[in-house]
Amino acid sequence: MAATLGVVANLSILAFFKYNHLVAASLGAQVGQIGSLGQALLLLPLPVGISFYTFHGISLVVDAWRGKVPKAEPFRPARHYRNTLLYIIFFPQLVAGPIVKAADFMPQIGWKKLDDVDWRTVFHHTVVGYFLKVVIADNLAQQTTFIACPACQNLSSIDLATLLVGYSVQIFADFCGYSSIAIGIAALLGYRLPINFNRPYIASSIADFWRRWHISLSSFLREYLYIPLGGNRRGPVRTYANLIVVMGLGGLWHGAEWSYAVWGLWHGVGLAVERACGGSEPTSRSFLLRAFRIAGVFVFVTLGWLLFKLPDFSDALQYLSAMATNTHIRPSLLRCLVIAAYALPVFAYHLLPSQRFGTVQRQMAVEGLLLGAIILNSGSSNAFIYFQF
User: CB under 8 Å to 210, separation ≥6 — which residues?
Assistant: First the structure.
């Protein structure tokens, strides 16, 4: 009962702050029609990082109930509350993840020594993270502003398709960059955070994509929602329903707009159809078939990202319509080349085997090049995309 109340309390706080406007709009309520108290509640600011520390609160309650969080002996209230507060508001990943389970973080709490810092991990993840953010994501952001309507209606089909690919690369670089910086800063403080991305754009199935993209969120949804709902243990129909429900809720977690729920349902239905067709675990070793599957998954995921960039459904439909009909407009070669230039390092990272940079010397050489690019070619500063969630 205590665990249930704890989960409900965390979700209630999240729902109150994050979804009050969505509920009011869905009920047809206007700010001027709900009285002074209602207006005051709707105008309350959204606490920074509420989505992530709500997840931490749920993980702490559930993991403690499951007995996965070690108990300190003897029990000291001051130390207990200090450790709990540190876990909930650990600042490197507070605003955009990665999500850290209580069972993984709580055992790490303790006194840290400077001699114990893994400086290679700190330097590597920090440099890679800043390169992805300020060089790739911020420069691509200057191009992907043209995705907005009505500007997109005057661009060619090739331009629009290229911009959508550019945004797909941008959102990866932006979010993976933040996660990498968070891992580096946490390592500087003596804490290990989980890797959040593993070359997601070479996934050969939608299920494989979600094992590679925002891994901490996928793991959280699977462990704390999908499995408690029954997972795949109650027959195929229930499995498909669980996938759709979990992904729909995961999409709605990203933002208080129905477009995010539709984005989640897009992936949920995709996972269900893929599983029904037996394609979630491809077995063929054919290079061409694998390449075709990777391209198909990338197109599926990239089309879904349009709802992140254009949360208004009418704008997204206008964009897709323009992409289908503007074949007669001449594309901008310069725009396509600029997007391709900034997308190339991300695609190279995905396609090149990690063993090619296995030695410390090679890694340091690559990091030196990335550091030079950060100094010489940083784009205009933009907030991290996932800060809004």
Answer: 218, 267, 271
Banded model confidence at residue 84, pLDDT cuts 50, 70, 90: confident
Gap between the Cα atoms of 83 and 97, Å rounded: 19
Q: Residue 56 catalytic?
A: no
Average pLDDT, the chain: 84
Chain centroid to CA 32: 35
Query: C-alpha 228: how far from its chain's center?
Result: 23
Residue with tokens 């009011």: 24
pLDDT tens profile 13-59 = 777 777 666 655 555 555 455 555 555 555 666 667 777 878 888 88
Q: How confident is the model at residue 10 (pLDDT cuts 50, 70, 90)?
A: confident
Crossing angle of helices 258-276 and 313-325, in 10° steps, is 60
C-beta atoms surrounding 137 within 10 Å: 27
Copy the structure tokens of residue 224.
């704390």
Q: How many residues does the chain have?
A: 389
The pTM of the whole model exceeds 0.85:
yes
Kindly report the number of other CB atoms within 10 A of residue 285's CB atom: 7
Contact of 156 with 173, CB cutoff 8 Å: no
- Active-site residue identified among 56, 124, 125, 254: 254
Residue type, 360: V
